[in-house]
Amino acid sequence: MVRPSTLPTAANGGHPPKDEAEEGILQPKPPTSGDRLVATLAASLARALGRFYPFAARLAAQERGDGTVTVSLRCTSDGAELVHATAPGVAVADIADSLYTPPVVRSFFSFNEVLDGDAAFESLPVLSVQVTELADSVFVAMSMNHSVGDGTTFWDFFNTCPVPIPMPSAKLHRLLRPFERPTVQECFFTFSAASVKKLKATANDEMATATATISSLQALLAHLWRALSRARCLPPEQSTIYYMIIGCRGRVGGILPGYVGNALVRSEVRSTAGEIERNGLGWTAWQLNRAVASFDEARVRDWLGRWVLEPEFAHMGSAMSDGAAVTTGSSPRFDVFGNDFGWGKPVAVRSGAAEKMDGATTVFEGREKGGSISLVVCAREGVLARLVDDKEFMDATSLPARA
């Protein structure tokens, strides 16, 4: 266990979503290895935990006398986990130059298929870092309990306790219930800055009379939504939902710049396969645009007020089970490639098994930056194969060396 170099006196809390946040970066081979490498990373992790001290805490569940249960974050400095592993048979090219993400990547994350709520009952750390030495590189992976932070906090930490809310016991059991994870494959698609710019221009040209500008990300996600519906061979009348995770930072006043915790809401956009295909890229992107715009400060505060009175948790496993939904998390604004442990910038980024369901996507900034965007897309085997064969979709991508 790695403990903070210093432990300030303060508090922070959050509410538990579901899977852990699992993302990691592929680094050049460092000048040191083995125990010396681990000692260096442990010292860096301890310094970072001095600032992000809630990540060294533990979740604790307590049954109350009134038939409710509280889950709280106890900042006792128990420490975060640091795991050292080796995979000498895996090289950079096996990961960064492959369109399909190899299954071995999931083994680089120490908390695969661990749910956020598990930490409250099994005394698990809320943060685990695994460093895996490969044949010619190092993969540094972080698994963070989503109860203690969102994507912004995750990447802020990667780069440098509170009033509990009573929850009915039955709801806590619903929160922690396991679900069957479908067998999916995943592809890592990259869209150059020029390609993203072209999609954005097309979407806005098609919606020339709209009252707001469609963003680059909204145009790209609309492009994906339409292509994924085609790859799934959905009938025109089939309902399809796009779940978007929307950050509240910048939308809600009172969130301090240094806030460590969750500031996220989920939005749903509903349509049919026929509508998004027939009405085109611009119309589809406009539906995503309106959903994002609808989450102003008043709506977010209203949602938060209702959540405290009636806690509800999203179960993406059931929401994504019909084979017609899409969900996107993370953000191209996260500084993924700004990390440097002292032996060079990352050469690639990948994610773990968390939230890997049919239709789940993760967004990253592209390695070339400047507006380029990468998408991790998960789908059932036949669906993903048809997506890769979709000329309209693939014409916008930049294929890796070993496609």
UniProtKB/TrEMBL annotation:
Pfam families: Transferase
Membrane-crossing segments per the record: none
Residue span of region Disordered: 1-33
MF terms (GO), sorted A to Z: acyltransferase activity, transferring groups other than amino-acyl groups
Glycoprotein found in the keyword field: no
Keyword vocabulary terms for this entry: Transferase
Entry protein name: Acetyltransferase
Protein species of origin: Urochloa decumbens
Lineage, highest ranks first: Eukaryota, Viridiplantae, Streptophyta, Embryophyta, Tracheophyta
